[in-house]
Protein 1
Amino acid sequence: MPPEAASARCCVVGGGPAGMMLGVLLARAGVDVLVLEKHADFLRDFRGDTIHPSTLELMHELGVLDELLKLPHQEIRELRAQFGQLGVPVADFTHLPTRCRFLVFMPQWDFLNFLAAHGARYPAFRLRMEAEVTGLIEDSGRVVGVTVRTPRGPLEIRADLVVGADGRHSVVRDKAGLRVMELGAPMDVLWFRLSRRAEEPTEPVARFDRGRIFIMLYRGEYWQCGYVIPKGEFEDVQGKGLDAFRERVAAVALYGGDRVGELRTWDDVKLLTVQVDRLAQWCRPGLLCIGDAAHAMSPVGGVGINLALQDAVAAANVLATPLSQGPVGVEELRRVQRRRELPTRITQWFQVMIQRRVIARILGGTAPLTPPLPLRLLARFALLRRIPARLIGIGVRPEHLRSPVRRTSA
């Protein structure tokens, strides 16, 4: 039986923040867009939950900010880090030149469902779940579509443009043969849950101690916890046994240390392999990569989602009008990379510097830990906290909506 056939002006691979935002903005501009998500829903745990002030600004420009903020969320106006027993203020968002002077913590599945519901308001928007891209369709060196695996059988989708927004393990960039430049990361993260008591706070916790880094994010009835380990040492951690791991968690957790017995098997612990990389070229004729598919970010600063969303806005700004008229040339695709490559490079430079000078030293250290000089300066001079707040909350070269608004498909 031949595969089912479908078509779209633009086929976006990946229903994460970048893919969903691009789908919404193209459909808003009247471009026929099909977003493919390989899972049946967005309920993946241990994903980034931060929505940055620059993203909230975009939600205002879309006219949906008030609606978004009706969803359960936390508003964080200051970030603090715990060095040993000392709390250090790191970033103060209350002075940002944005409508919302705070970070929002919201489960990513709620944010993605919100974008999907907003996209459904536009006739040009289509979202197909349980649609896993397995390959690219090419014609004379140009990408003209994708092959897809679905529960109902194989599917071929023809498109004037394929956008890879399928994350750091992108099938699209792999099948396209795009060259990846590895920048390296000294750590991996073990994610798990611990139950939360009602009297415990809701603010995120980042604790740095000798040889250990531990993150706790409020999720209502439980804490989402991240235990940072040196790169590639998960097997060694497992080899020492779950009891030893529970003891390490109990020793560093500010809350929930008496609940580590909730980690019953290693299946309760998920490994995030941290990688920092970027593509030399983000595009080929008929194909563009954005978000983590173009540049996998470190979890340092939690800015990966922000970069991905900014990529989506830039791509819509550049491509919506020409794409509504037919296939776009490779030069137009390169304009997206030129727009977003400098912010990516600068952000990754900061992340790699922090990884090498702070994280690697903490993970490899045995002496009592004191905050490094930059953090001591942040603790002493409140004005300096506006700098990391701007880098985290707004980033380098924030984007604004420039794409046209049409209510009907092209």
Protein 2
Amino acid sequence: MAATRRLKELISATLPKLDLPDGPVVVALSGGADSASLAFLAREAGHHPKAIHIDHQLPASEVMSGAAREVADALGVHLDIQRVVVGDGPSPEEQARVARYEALTRARGPILTGHTRDDSLETMLINLIRGTGPSGLLGIPRFRPPHIHRPMLEVTRSETREIATLAGLAFVDDPMNQDSSLTRTRVRLEVMPLLREINPRVEAALARTAATLGRDAEYLDRQTPGFEDSQAVPASVVLSLPRALADRVLHGVLERSGVGPTADRIERMRSVAEGQSDRQDLADGRVAVRRGAMLVIE
């Protein structure tokens, strides 16, 4: 009885925090507690969700797929399993993420992922460690084009685990979450506990920082001029704008061109705009060059 009462309390507390899109939704069901509780909460909210599971065909994938099936069956949710091939690369975690998002992007949306506030704060710290601009300190965006939503960024990981447990959902923990060779795992298991010793309310402090930066970013975004051409911008615009706005313009050109925006690539594009170099390599054979008055990605 106490468990039932506690589950009702958690549902009442977490449902108002969810940022769910309207209409039918599809939950990216990993088999873990976060996505299991998201599927449960989406059903409680009356969204009649379906689910999709991405099978990475890695050593732990069979266990995760089995858990996803059990959760879907327990909730009476239709489950579509998509198998992907994870490419080679220095970071298996990153290669799995790329393959997963490619599959989710191809699927019909809106797609909901189970990222929590904890995931977003860990991303914030990882970006800070690697070196980032203000956007990297905002954590995980609520929306990823074309149709991927993260509705649980105000919900904590401890809340999702408790919900999934009390709801009787047979989730499992991904073994990769214990792999200490992965940066995110070390941040989660080593860095965050140390920060909690320094400040027991470090999660709330980081969330306040992200919220403050977010308000600043929204204002700067409104001041940044837009351009119809997805892969070019007048070099004069880059050179005449305040640096904070010029960097946003270059970030947008890189993003629309399908080249991942990084601080280094923005600097490379700026050097071409300033005439310090004729061309700069960006990624995957893409280059930044001057074509008359225009700064172009080819």
Protein 3
Amino acid sequence: MAAHIPNDLLQAYRRKTFRLAPGTRLQNLNDAVAFVEARGFVTLWPIQSVDLPNLWTAAAGDRPVASEHDDPGHITWGWKDEMLNKRKWYYGKLLRGKATIVSLDVIPYFYALSDRVGEVDDYRLAYEDGHLTYESLRVAEALLKNGPQHTIQLRRLSHLSASQSKSRFNKALSDLQRGLWIVPVGIAKAGAWRYAFIYELFDRWFSNVAARARHITLAAARTELTRRYLDSVGVSTAKNIGRLFRWRLKQTQTALNTLAGEKLAVLCEEECWATARLLG
């Protein structure tokens, strides 16, 4: 029989995992690092229609991201910038192509599910297979040849400086981040805003992730990420989990069935799944 999860029980659980309970808000960078390590992966800001802990809400409370630059909640932006060159977590446009922060314990599971084969230049294979654009190839080649570059210089080196190339260049940056080929590693005072990300090839920056991911099977990676996600949100559906990670329904269902067999997840009413922690 499917379990019934009272809404007040679910909301109380999320107040803990999203750090909304009184006295649990993030106060400093050490709190933020501990939060990411506890959850495995979070987003920088809330994402519409996605249930997932995020740095903004955990620090500023359950309210919209402020447009005012001096809002105290924007301390999270400073934390993100400060951590870019520390190799203490992964930051990049990953889930839904949005700013995502992943603990170093969990990033190998994402890597295991990517198109990566563990070679610093395997973006060439992805391009040949039609998974990356020519602009993405240019950007990655520029980084391979020249080392870390800020956005303005990277556009020049990729021969994408023309105004009509801007959208294709930005798409290349997003696609390469989502595929774990490149990663932001710092901030440069460049461009009109005196603020530009510095990018590097993922495998040169996180040199041990490929080796750590090598022995993680696809099924094991999906199961672990599903477990981490359910532990964070309490309850979700196979459809929503698959949409978040871009998995087929059968793949998601297999991961959920594995967790159920290990008594780590429970089938609920209305085709929902709950972490066993919610009921224990």
Protein 4
Amino acid sequence: MGEMRISLVATVKDDAEHIQAFLASLAAQKLPPDEVIVVDGGSTDGTLDALRKAEGIRLHVEPGANIARGRNIAIASASHDVIAVTDADCELEPDWLERLVEPLRAGADVAMGVSRPIVESFLQGCMAAASLPDPEEIGEATFMPSSRSVAFRRSAIEAAGGYPEWLDIGEDMYVNHRWRELGVDMRLASEAVVRWRLRPTIAETWTQYFRYARGDATARMYPQRHALRMAVYAGLLFALSSRRRWVLAFAALAGAAYAAKPVKRALARFDEPVERAAAVVAVPALMAFVDAAKMAGYLSGLAKRARS
């Protein structure tokens, strides 16, 4: 590609608590981007003040813009054809950008970085084990990267039609599906790590996954996956209501198999014996809780889609 020039784009709204950590991690990049563009959706909590004081930030303020709109604005104003995308509430590992663009240097159209959790509580540790796979579990051919850790050539995002501004959440998964359908060259950059904060409370976790699933329904994504989840839980309710020992035993074995990998992650990530023991119970319970949020969100999205 010759000399690669990189535009880094990010979106943010009302995250004064974490914006300084993001800016510090950006300044610490071993490979600095050639420009940084941040689109703010109308912050009122001090985020804008921090961004205006930061050196090297080109700031756009677009009150009311959703994430997709913010990313499209940033990409449209970017000067370069290689674009790295993240979120301004994350923390970038020092070699994130350097590692992220390696697949592009090798000829890829899209470089898929990864996310790792910032764990500040037992709940977040259990949620990380339940929802975030370990690096060795990620397969390049099927991985769907979050746009908090991705880079691409401008031609790739243009081929996908940009981020869908009609979709308030799940916009990055929609683009991933378009890339897979188009046969875009997507390569994994497993050492390009962004640190990401999980939701700190049960209520916020419910809202997060409810909204993810509602976005899936709105955008017609993962219909088979959601149908299978609902069928499995319907079968579980049948098993519990039947009270037949062999049915209950089969359901228990199936549930244990379903939770085995996340529980194994939790046991590897917690050091204290008490936390490890608690995680064996908490992780399956959280998985069921998140599945309930997804089922409720998906049904809500189907209803919304039917109305519109």
